[in-house]
Amino acid sequence: MNSKSKTNLRIRAHEFITKNGWLPLGILVLTLLHWSILIFKVPVFPHGWFWNFHYTAIGTVWVLPVMAILLAIGLWYTYSPSRRNTVLLAGMIGLGFCFQHSFALLEGRGLNGIRDRITYTGHAKFAEDAVNQAGIISTLTNYEQLVQEGKLNRFAQSKPPGQLLFYMLTERVANFIRPHESVEERLAWMRTFACFAWPIFGFLVLIPLYALVKDWSGTETALMACWLYLLIPAGILITLHADQVLYPLLLVLSLLLCHIANRTSRAAYAIGAGAFVYCAIFISFSLLCIIPLAAAVLIASPTHQTGKSHLRGSAVRCSWFLLGLVVADLAFRIVLDYNIHVRFVEAMKFHASWREWENTPRNIIHCGILNTLEFALLAGVPLCGFALYGMLHSTEKSLGGEWNELHSLALALACVFAALLLFGKTKGESARLWLFLTPCVCIMGAYAIASRYARAKHWLIPVVVILQFITIAITKVCQDFY
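RE: above sequence
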């Protein structure tokens, strides 16, 4: 390298550090601080922290370099001139499967490293209930009675019927593939089947996520969002939970349907989006948060509408969306005798009592700090750092009148987080409970990198991905989800 090239390189490096580098450097410092806290077990986490320090003995060290090599191959192919996006997405889904199994395999217990999550943890009771119920329709129509009579696990009291339905469908598919007679054999096979099916299913969200962000910001930003989602510590370590397997997919599909309705201005898509969101809420009341996010996309201005035309179009699309919600509610009431209001009230009562929630300003502030820190650290400091900048930057633009879908979503996401902090009645474990929002966080992070660091994104994304990967490894060893 000649002296002129060295001078230009120094100038670009100086410009990056002085003009744009404060955010990446700040994120790097905070990431190193987070690692140090985990490694040296510094007791700084607030009272009520769910992920306590917990050393996990490593039984198969060779898995780590193998995962690192697979990650390097994936990143290399991302920037390869011969890249095919369909092949890359399929490879990412495979990587997600491998990462979940490999980090569980580190414990040296074989398949039990991941299977224990559906065998011994609290939500494993849903698997037992799924096997013991006689029929799907009868269980759904009599769900409230089964809950009141104590014939379902205690977690079912805080859930709508769709949560149990997901486990029952898994059990039915598993039993169809390999039938068993006894309840014990069916339950054991369902757990093993879920170990392989659910990790793949959980990363299918990358397909609609890619399609959505590609329409908003282009192919490169879409791939960035997928890489960021793939390396979320909570997503890799919280395995065999519907929070990771199903909820993010339902969120992204809902937003994609709203985006299509916005782009085409066809009533069928808006009605379908409303009905689909209702089905998502039938699975988890946490997914009520989809409604403001979906509305934000529907309200946003398509490129061919301005002024009064935009306002009229937004009102029409939102009306069709609400009609979809109403039609779905009527259908569920008629077919399944399901009263969403009764189930929601009972679920919130149980949730508040079980979590020992105190509705005082002091407790709300304490839990707000606790939940924010836990979610940010377990989603990854690098991801959340860029996502926060992207969300604030987009929110500023939306408030300034740039009502495209991405900026509108950022404002709605900020409002959803604020509502969860104030009214969520959650005391810890936000890394799991808010996991469904991580696709939106990844969208904001990818947008921040693509817009602010366009010239540096080709090396910045691999650096962020590597930092996230190291965070997963350290968290696994020092503070695993158990």
